[in-house]
């Protein structure tokens, strides 16, 4: 029976209170509606006992209820036209389904009522999810793989916001998706590999990073797709688990790196509030830039990453995506509140310097550059920042191995390849051979990385670790320095996207007029270091955010119509200054400089 539960804290319980509760349900919950009024619970959580006033009693009779459940803390109303049953207490506020054995005697106290949580099934047309997740009564979750009829598209069950909103926690009422490299009790972790999923036991413990979100009141609804072991692969290199679909524009654009499943989910579904990813060398920042979402890579070392499939402990971070800047700021502040590397002193102003890389700007599309110019002007106006033009590649050169950015990237590769092979690949291959008498199948990118990793020595890995730690120290001391008043002396701005041009999931589409191939590294192509500034944040351990700031039009040779492409800005700061970046987002949102992104074809 569709049922609504209401909880009151004050007596008398009035018609005004009850109608306001319904308005609250309609405003905050995308599941509750008037059809959940076959039955109703009214419970009282205040002192002593409560009663319904006369106007409330009369109004309740107009709802068409089949049965009204009243908690024992409320005086039984004198309503003869309605079956009223006394219960000890009802469930949290929100919609439910109930099944009850209604007693013959109307004065008899209800003996048993079965109460079921309500879930709405939402399509996953962008194939962002591996599976949905339903919570178990004794903790943990179970997977769902729901399809309806001849429709092969998976459906994700989502809970009512009201039932979880009443927890009264900072993130109560929010739903999130989890990249499939994070452990969650009862949900398999495959890390984009069917072979890995076969041999790794289903986790019996939830990753500490995920537990923090649950403790803040957020609700997990499922796991999202990832490239194998979070390796930075191109869409056409996904073989084992298919690549997700970017909802933006013509529907064939790339979403870049390993957290693309989470990025596509947040860009595609308005029923999802945020999505967890990981960022080692850009796997939150690049997808966020390409789908037009807010994204965060925190200062390296901000979060305990036990229960997360590692890529490089020297660069790995837990990150996330969101569409709403205020929620983004709230999550970024609270999730990392206990960070051991967070600078805790109060910021009394924002950084005065905005490092503007002249070797990077202007971007390729003139309309996109106009958006950057406007955003920089807004930073100067609202945050009192001063634009400081700088050839950032040249500024970096003294701190690069032999002054060479390509060598710098190769050291980064060593950090990722060595650790991924020894922590994940090698144990997997050995166990798989023992169990199945054959080698596991890997995607092309994984095969390449593991092949190179087999030839790396421990001393080469140690050399890469030493270089990264020295680079981190140099950048913090010489380029993006600390400041006692603003935490970070400067903020570094750049574009982690495509400069306003479309880049496609299919390799051949990138040869279309106006298109460009989104590059993951400059090692095998003729590219400039200024196209790969995501490596700086990774190797220097900087906190960095992606902020959607506009969109530009392009004519799609795929859809044969004009489409809108998101434009985003990266903002990086001194290590530990994550809170300052979150305050910056909050300030810009209050000023109307940045606004919530939409789900679907267009960002705004």
From TrEMBL:
Boundaries of every Scytalone dehydratase-like protein Arp1 N-terminal domain copy: 1-99
Pfam families found in the cross-reference section: Amidase, DUF8016
Gene3D superfamilies listed in its UniProt record: Amidase signature (AS) domain (3.90.1300.10)
Amidase domain ranges (all copies): 167-581
Protein name, UniProt field: Amidase signature domain-containing protein
């Amino acid at each position: 029976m569709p049922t609504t539960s209401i909880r009151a804290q004050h007596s008398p319980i009035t018609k005004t209170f009850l109608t306001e509760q319904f308005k609250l349900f309609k405003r905050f919950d995308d599941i509750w509606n008037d059809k959940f009024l076959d039955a109703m619970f009214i419970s009282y959580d205040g002192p002593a006992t409560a009663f319904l006033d006369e106007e409330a009693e009369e109004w309740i009779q107009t709802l068409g209820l089949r049965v009204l459940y009243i908690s024992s803390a409320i005086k039984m109303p004198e309503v003869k036209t309605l079956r009223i049953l006394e219960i000890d207490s009802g469930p949290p506020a929100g919609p439910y389904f109930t099944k009850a054995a209604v007693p013959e005697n109307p004065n008899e106290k209800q003996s048993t009522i079965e109460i079921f949580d309500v879930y709405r099934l939402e399509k996953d047309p962008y194939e962002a999810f591996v599976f949905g997740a339903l919570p178990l009564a004794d903790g943990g979750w179970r997977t769902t793989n729901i399809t309806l009829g001849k429709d092969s598209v998976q459906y994700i069950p989502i809970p009512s916001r009201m039932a979880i909103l009443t927890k009264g926690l900072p993130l109560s009422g929010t739903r999130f998706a989890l990249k499939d490299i994070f452990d969650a009790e009862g949900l398999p972790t495959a890390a984009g590999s069917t072979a890995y999923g076969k041999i790794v036991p289903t986790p019996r413990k939830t990753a500490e990073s995920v537990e923090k979100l649950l403790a803040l009141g957020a609700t997990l609804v499922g796991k999202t797709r990832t490239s194998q072991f979070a390796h930075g692969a191109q869409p056409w290199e996904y073989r084992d688990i298919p690549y997700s679909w970017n909802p933006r524009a013509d529907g064939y654009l790339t979403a870049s790196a390993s957290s693309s499943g989470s990025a596509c989910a947040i860009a595609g579904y308005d029923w999802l509030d945020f999505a967890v990813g990981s960022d080692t060398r850009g796997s939150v920042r690049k997808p966020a830039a390409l789908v037009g979402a807010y994204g965060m890579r925190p200062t390296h070392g901000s979060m305990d990453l036990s229960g997360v499939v590692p890529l490089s402990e020297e660069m790995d971070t837990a990150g996330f995506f969101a569409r709403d800047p205020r929620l983004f700021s709230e999550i970024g502040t609270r999730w990392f509140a206990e960070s051991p590397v967070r600078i805790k002193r109060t910021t009394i102003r924002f950084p005065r310097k905005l490092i503007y890389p002249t070797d990077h700007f202007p971007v390729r599309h003139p309309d996109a550059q106009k958006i950057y110019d406007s955003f920089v002007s807004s930073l100067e106006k609202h945050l009192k920042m001063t634009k400081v033009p700088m050839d950032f590649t040249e500024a970096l050169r003294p701190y690069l191995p032999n002054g060479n950015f390509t060598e710098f990237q190769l050291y980064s590769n060593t950090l990722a390849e060595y650790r991924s092979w020894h922590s994940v690949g090698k144990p997997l291959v050995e166990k798989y051979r023992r169990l199945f008498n054959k080698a596991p199948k890997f995607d092309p990118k994984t095969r390449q990385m593991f092949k190179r990793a087999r030839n790396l020595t421990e001393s080469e890995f140690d050399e890469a670790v030493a270089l990264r730690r020295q680079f981190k120290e140099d950048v913090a001391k010489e380029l993006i320095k600390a400041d006692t008043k603003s935490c970070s002396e400067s903020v570094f701005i750049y574009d982690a996207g495509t400069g306003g041009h479309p880049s496609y999931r299919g390799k051949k589409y990138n040869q279309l007029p106006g298109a460009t191939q989104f590059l993951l590294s400059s090692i095998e192509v003729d590219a400039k270091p200024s196209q790969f500034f995501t490596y700086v944040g990774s190797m220097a351990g900087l906190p960095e955010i992606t902020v959607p700031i506009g969109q530009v039009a392009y004519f799609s040779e795929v859809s044969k119509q004009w489409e809108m492409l998101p434009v985003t800005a990266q903002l990086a700061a001194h290590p530990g200054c994550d809170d300052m970046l979150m305050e910056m987002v909050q300030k810009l949102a209050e000023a109307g400089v940045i606004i919530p992104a939409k789900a679907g074809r267009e960002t705004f």
